[in-house]
Amino acid sequence: MAAISVSLSVVQEAMALSSVPVCNAGSLKSPSVAMRSSFGGTRLKASCLKTRASGSAPGSLVTRCTATVPASTSAKSIDTANDARVYNFAAGPATLPANVVKQAQADLFNWRGSGMSVMEMSHRGKEFLSIIQKAEADLRTLLKIPENYEVLFLQGGASSQFSAIPLNLCTPEDTADFIVTGSWGDKAYKEAQKYCKANLSFTGKPGKYTNLPSESEIKLTPGAKFVHICANETIQGVEFKEYPNVGDAILVADMSSNFCSKPVDVSKFGIIYGGVQKNIGPAGVVIVIIRKDLLGNAQPQTPTMFDYKIHAENKSLYNTPPCFPIYVCGLVFDDLLAQGGLEAAEERNIEKASLLYDAIEGSNGFYKCPVEKSVRSLMNVPFTMQTPELEAEFIKEAAAQGMVQLKGHRSVGGVRASIYNAMPKAGVEKLVALMKSFQSKHSS
Ligand code: PMP
Q1: 151 vs 230, 287, 288, 289, CA distance in Å?
Q2: I need a surface site. Which of 167, 238, 301, 388 has the fewest CB within 10 A?
Q3: Residues 335 and 348 in one domain
Q4: Is the CB of 258 inside a 6 Å radius of any atom of ligand 1?
Q5: Do 334 and 346 have their domain in common?
Q6: Tens-place pLDDT, residues 184-205
Q7: Is 11 in the pocket of ligand 1 (CB under 6 A)?
């Protein structure tokens, strides 16, 4: 065993991975406390101490943790231990294709003979330029993005686009319509109120966001600058199968949680955007696909970093981009192309989602999915059981079998299995097997 000093966030992250946190470091009451968690199947021990940071004001404390990493989880053993990986059903950051992670590992120290890792490269050097240009070209191929659209690799997450979109498309007097079918669409609607006249054209809140509106239920504003939808609501598991007809208005879609999960007719949209940390790569990049004629009308007070025109003119290199996450996105695009593109990805996703929804439907009500059948997400599958205690036991049992992060979002509870592109069918089959055995055990 080797004792190493790590920051609190590293320890918390390791604990989050295990999904069995024993204590919350943020609520430490005693000056020193031991934390334990499992990491890669073995136990991780960490002791934390609250101390005064050097140079800090009297009374201000920082928490420092020392983690003891068991020898079996050292970098060397993870190198070869394929089976140390769990089935990770997290909603995001989420599982990545194993071969992509291994490729990143192989490239890590010395990217393709350049003598440096991607983390160390200048974003303006020829090596990184080749990486970002190939990533963009491959994404264009995958989504068949027309020439009159820009592809931007930005920072600030999908959440920052909730402000950037109205700032770029509207004056403060313009109206923008929001079709709100879940928690993320609601956040986008609330944020837009700061920058334009945001109008609620539909809200699924009274029905607890378990359905999508029919055309007649959507009240569009004549002359609205854009209409916003969230293509897949990650928390509630509601996904648009067809997109609303918005006439001459610009359709804007948050595709964070179903980006590249199926083919999309990009030409129907003015803007498609999404954080990549679900289907495409590590957290740190948000991709914006924007029709070129929409550039150049940002409100005068728009921060430079939120102005799409600036980023388009600078090919996403106005400032230092998140180089390493962009590189991993590129590996994922490569992988998707090698596996037959988005048509093939959609087939795989339908097959996996059907396994899970069929198991729920075939359980005689032991498992229930609240979402209306025709709009169930291929990516995020929420389900409930008779009691929260039973759900907690199921989640614990799943974790013991190497299936992690199945807890529903804190705002809705229940269980949620996120089965993005990179979740192997074997992972879903294993989950379904557990659902069946768990039901037998608990049905009297
Ligand atoms: N939109 C959707 C649909 C999401 O699922 C999320 C994140 N879970 C966001 C927006 C916010 O993304 P970010 O954390 O990248 O800001």
Answers
A1: 19, 7, 6, 5
A2: 301
A3: no
A4: no
A5: no
A6: 999 999 999 999 999 999 999 9
A7: no
pLDDT of residue 13: 36
Confidence of residue 82 (pLDDT cuts 50, 70, 90): low
Tokens 């999309």: give the residue.
Answer: 264
Q: Is residue 18 part of a domain?
A: no
Active-site choice (278, 309, 352, 407): 278
Return the pLDDT at 443: 87
Is 254 considered catalytic here?
A: yes
Ligand 1, atom 15: closest residue by C-alpha: 157
Domain boundary among the residues 287, 320, 339 is at: 339
Give the phi and the psi of residue 233 in degrees, each rounded to 5.
Answer: -85, 110
Please give the residue range of the domain that contains residue 210. Answer: 99-339
Tens digits of residue pLDDT in 299-322? 999 999 999 999 999 999 999 999
Protein residue closest via CA to atom 10 of ligand 1: 158
What pLDDT band is residue 410 in, cutting at 50, 70 and 90? confident
> Using a 6 Å cutoff on CB, does residue 234 contact ligand 1?
yes
d(CA 109, CA 336): 24
Same domain, 148 and 231: yes
pLDDT at res. 84? 82
Q: Is 161 in the pocket of ligand 1 (CB under 6 A)?
A: no
Structure tokens at 274: 């999404």
Residue nearest to atom 4 of ligand 1 (CA): 256
Q: Could you tell me if residue 384 is inside a domain?
A: yes
Catalytic residue, candidates 186, 254, 262, 307: 254
Burial of 359 (0-12, 13-18, 19+ CB in 10 A): buried
Active site residue 111: no
Compute the distance between CA of residue 77 and CA of residue 80 in angstroms, rounded to an integer: 6
Asked about 79 being catalytic, the answer comes back as: no
pLDDT in tens, 355-365: 999 999 999 99
> Taking 70 as the threshold, does the pLDDT of residue 18 lie above it?
no
Residues 272 and 362 in one domain: no
Q: Say which CATH number the domain at 402 has.
A: 3.90.1150.10
